[in-house]
Amino acid sequence: MNIWRRWFSRKHHDENMNEELRFHIEQQTAANITSGMTPEEARRQAVLQFGGVEAVKEGCREQRRGFWLESLWADVRYGLRALRRNPGFAAVAILTLALGIGANTAIFSVVEGVVLAPLPYREPDRLVMVLESNLRFPEDAISYPNFQDWQRNARSFQQMSAIMIEQGFDLTGPGTPEHLEGSRISSGLFSTLGVNLILGREFSPQEDRPGGAPVAIISSGVWKNRFAGSPQVLGQSVTLDGVVCTIVGVAPPEARLVSERGDVYAPLAQGDPIVLNARGSHAGMLSIARLKSGVTIAQAQSEMSAIQEHLDQLYPNADAGLGATVLPLKQQIVGDVSGTLLLLLSAVGLVLMIACANVANLLLARSAARSREFAVRSALGAGRMRIGQQLVTESVLLSLAGGVLGLALAKWGVNLALAAVPRSLPRTENIGVNASVLLFAFGASIAVGILFGLAPSLKSSKVDLQASLKEGGRGSTSGNHRAQNALVVVQMALTLVLLVSAGLLFRTIRHLSQTDPGFDTQHVIAFKVGLSPSATKTGATLRASYLQLLDRIRTIPGVQAADFTMLVPLSEDDNDTPVWIGSEKPASVQNAPRMLVFPTGPEYLRTMSIPLLRGRFFTREDTTKSRCVAVIDTVFAQTYLSGKDPLGQTMTFGWDANPWGPCAIVGVVGHVKHWGLGSPGTNTEAQSYYPLYQSADKLWPLVYSNVRIVVRTPLDAATVVPAIKAAVYGGNSDQTVYDVRTMQGVASESMSSQRFPMILLGVFAGLALLLASVGIYGVISYSVAQRGHEIGIRMALGAEKRDVLRMVIGQGLRLALAGLAVGAAATLILTRLLSSFSHLLYGVGAGDPLTFTVVSLLLTSVAALACYIPARRAMRIDPIVALRYE
């Protein structure tokens, strides 16, 4: 009671302090005037003598702060004692909050690692990616000659570098042969990024030129695995694609930029001159630049547009119609996954809201039982704010305990999320429970503690003293009933939103799995082969090596067909080129129509089971010595040859000054879904096939690293792959087999952008359903307990048990149906407004009636089941005992 008296005397104490201060200042002012000072000077000196009014006021404020901390500590101690007296209530509330906070923390760790965390480079906001653009593709790969001109002429950038992505290397020494992922980079890339090498240095400009000294930078992983982390690695040699290179540096893990693995780096200018010297070639090259201090992206964009416009005029054959695009580097790395991740974070936020509503219902029921306690406090002088502070303190204690347990669940949940994330998700190495995630969990715990504790505290502070203090009085609980019913309606509505979202994605996955990809994905294995350096010296030896390798693979028991291709369906690998019918070249090759080119062998259709609809496919007689031929798909025929007989028509394609063609169209095949089973059709859809046997010898060294071998066999991959490796190794011991994938796995991976959110939304919907069913069960149980006297009277007047059952379950179903109505309207609005969700759907609309019907029936059934248990309890009420109440 000491605390209460001190709290109520605070205002009086402050007033006394102010009166005493004024008295002393007036006395000293009078004395100063007597000594000859002016009135203004006398009062100023008096104020200074007594330390200043503000200083005194600050002392009063410090005293009030000390009192507030003391009262807060008293509230914490009392709250802990109250929770210990109700361990069942505390356990249910803490576990409910732990599920909500843990799920939110786990998803936030993914969002923070992928989207929110800055790039691991010096001043990452100044890093940009510079790409080419044309009328059809606003973001396209660049050509090396254009990059060199940009680098010479641009003044907006502190540094500018280039990188060739999707560049692998076959390491054949020292040690066991292995395929390494890596890139060709220009000199200065690491300094552009602001990355310091672990050992050594970057490539010099003298090394980054044709004919420069063969050098390499290896990753920290290769350094540890191949060279045991020895500091003497600098100056040692590695053999990459048959070239002996000197190691000049070791790159840290954060140097990895656009590929999952960055094992090795080689000078860009030492690459194939066919690609580097052609201004019209766009072979997966990007430019990374660092803006000068004070230069904006808009200013850099304006300058680059002017530079590229000048290049368009200088080189109209290759650059006509080209532009330059300057974009933030982080935006390009993260891509469009941020929308999906933020959607998932919003969805798991609904789970937390449901958990808060659940705990708020528990607190409302508990506060009704504590009405006499609050009435006594009010009678002793406690105000509404003081009672509210006590209740909010208790709720924050619950949420902090739930947050601690939620962190443990979040760490487990992050591991599960990492196991489910698609391979295409960038920056997964950043995902984890770090300081930012811990701060989020703490902030979420405090926020939800205040959120779910606010409504009960407001309700409980409005106590009826006479009714609550009356001996045996129950007080009025109608206000609590209304608040609890409203919270249940909100829970049911939010649960419906999550269930419908998960249901729509589930139906999307079903539609995708039933979609015909245009070929038979069953029993097909695709892999790459790192050929021996002795086989890669010339185009002729490369062609001969692949033919011998295919002949050996075809003799393996169980292999029905095998061939090679540069493009595997559903892999989303890009090989689109400009195309035009006939031989007359368009004015702007960059803005010409595009098609996907599948360079393949003659057995490719049979291996993949792609239907031949008209004409013929390739044969071994289609070589460099015969006429150029091509096969098109049905989309190409409908798009570019509508109303014409495609057989016998000619087409020309390619980027260079001397493109392929004109090639005679000799066949039409079925369309293959290359960009994924649910491709929206915004990518290049027209497809053509070109015989690899007709590729000139000079092109084989350029394309062989992209060649895959596809094998059709009824045997399991685990059974046939060892035999395939034996056939490959039998040719040369320094050859490797890597990137082995089944086409079923490729097809499954193509659905990962829908499967990942479906899994998480399904988990969230399951949690929401559990929490909502517990919530409605709690409300109905509380209602039955409060209405025991009424139910007893009804039964005494002749009501049957089934009438009581119907009444109780009807009360719960009315709440459920109200929630369904609100949730259905919210779901229809949200699924249509959220473009990131609508883009995930395939074969089903956002307002799919079947999904809404099934989910509504499920939710109604669960609500009825949750009401059935308290309804059974109500049926067992003894009228005699109930009538003795009061």
Report on the architecture of this protein:
By secondary structure, the protein is of the alpha+beta class. The chain is built from 30 helices and 21 strands. The strands form three sheets. The protein has a six-stranded mixed barrel with strand order 2-3-8-5-7-6. It has a six-stranded mixed β-barrel with strand order 13-14-19-16-18-17. A hairpin with a 2-residue loop joins strand 6 (237-240) and strand 7 (243-251). 42% of the residues are buried. Residues 1-17, 51-65 and 471-476 have low confidence and may be disordered.
Characteristic key phrases:
single chain; 886 residues; alpha+beta; six-stranded mixed beta barrel; 30 helices; disordered N terminus
Could you give the order of strands across the largest sheet?
A: 2-3-8-5-7-6
Find the structural class using helix and strand composition. Answer: alpha+beta
Q: What is the assembly state of the chains in this entry? A: single chain
Compute the number of strand runs.
21
Low-confidence stretches: 1-17, 51-65, 471-476
Helix tally equals 30
